[in-house]
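During the first year of the project, the team set up a workflow for recording each protein of interest as an amino acid sequence followed immediately by a discrete structure-token representation. This format lets reviewers and collaborators read both layers of information side by side without switching files. As required by the reporting guidelines, we include two representative entries from the current panel. The first entry is reproduced here exactly as it appears in our internal archive.
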Amino acid sequence: MPATLEVAGKDIGPDVNGLTDNFALEGLTLGDPNNSNLVKVQLIDTYDNQDDGQTECIYVENFAMHTGATLDLNGLTLYYLNDESPDAYLADGGVFDSAGGGALVQIPEPATLALLTLDALGAPLRR
């Protein structure tokens, strides 16, 4: 039987504001890089933490999984920032189970988002 992790955040999409005042986690590491024991965690949404009846999600600033770890998304969404290394969550071979739906979504870094916004604003000027 997997360990469970209650998602409690309001789902505002892949936005850094989801990390502020929204039941966000500073870090979540599944497994141990020095020990490949099997670890399985399943996301759940048992309680309505937002009082609006909408499906909730989880926001994580720094997320990593190691060999032997499995995350069952269970139809829910995990948003992660990983500002130091955007692909760190894949580095050590963790497994994501999305058979029941759900998504693992990276939040664009604020600097990257600002560049995209500037580019979008400048596009009409080039025409």
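The second entry, processed by the same pipeline in the following quarter, appears below.
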Amino acid sequence: MSKILIFSLAYHPFVGGAEVAIKEITERLAGEFEFEMITANLDGRQKEFEENFNGLSKIYRLGKRKSDKYFFPWLACRKAVELHRQSNYQMIWAMMANQAGWAALKFKKKFPQVPYLLTLQEGDSEWDIWRRTFLIRPIYKAIYKKADYIQAISNFLAQRAKNLGAKCPIEVVPNGISNVIASEAKQSHIFKNKDLKRVITVSRLVKKNGLEDLVKAMELVNKDYDKPVVLKIIGDGELKYKLEKAVNYSKIKDKIAFLGKINNEKVYEYLAQADIFVRPSLSEGLGNAFLEAMACGVPVIATPVGGIPDFLKDGETGWFCEVRNPKSIAEKIKYIFDEENKEEVDRVVKSAKKMVEENYNWEKISLDLKKIFNHLINQE
């Protein structure tokens, strides 16, 4: 059985879209490949070594504290060299062009014959990435240039790889969602309160997700709409205090609830209760939360940025609002609430749900990754 070594800066219990993708893919392909992982021990409280963990035969966690992630390229490469001499990996797989990609790059330079797959999941804007990588720009570009194959979760990220000088094959294979979500969530719609309209967002509370614009839009909606409209914000992040302060000084503080970070099962319950999902992103790698909302039968409003146009077609699978424009967001919310547009909304929701079920399921995505793995491992 071929052995694959994964470099990932974070992993369970620190979970984002990239970590979910690793788990879903490795669990499905564990019978055909042996996966091992090197990751950072971000809080110093996790076991340094475990076996048979979420589809991984072995997981090694390096470091003692959060700040150790900055040393991850050196720590991880050193550990990988030690393990490679024992295990003779047939392939390395880096999750994102961050410290994990840097560690894979260092390993690749030592063992150029070992195929190197880079997966791109980043949702940050070009400016934010440029700012973070300014002092190490040649190294950052080399993470792309030295890859033997790149898997990007959106066309936006695939183009970024080309712009940064990648010469290897680049394939777009998105993230997926659980097929169970849609059927379970659909049953919950019968409990909706017809006299109350609910808008929901599932977002990290960071600048790129445009939540300040959404809060301002809610003021406009409640000013013009004849029924109360509430907003539930699921997620946590650095802007939490600023957003809460802005809401407390607004006229609709009783209509916006910050629910914090909650587990996925509970998220789907809230999605099923919602009338509209909105995230007016400034940048986006792909955006699993949009797909989950679509699978739950919830109309989606988004901005035409990053990887979102891969799955959202205006008036076909959702609606676009303008970037940094609360008035545009409010107009789209009111449009969906308008009873005269109910037939169109139902059609769009049905089309979006079908699109997600057909193109964004983990079974299909795992098979696509399996083909990439086999191509790299078996190439002459």
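For the second entry, the following points were noted during internal review. The two ends are 18 Å apart (CA to CA). Residues 342-359 form the longest helix (18 residues). Both points are flagged for discussion at the upcoming steering committee meeting.
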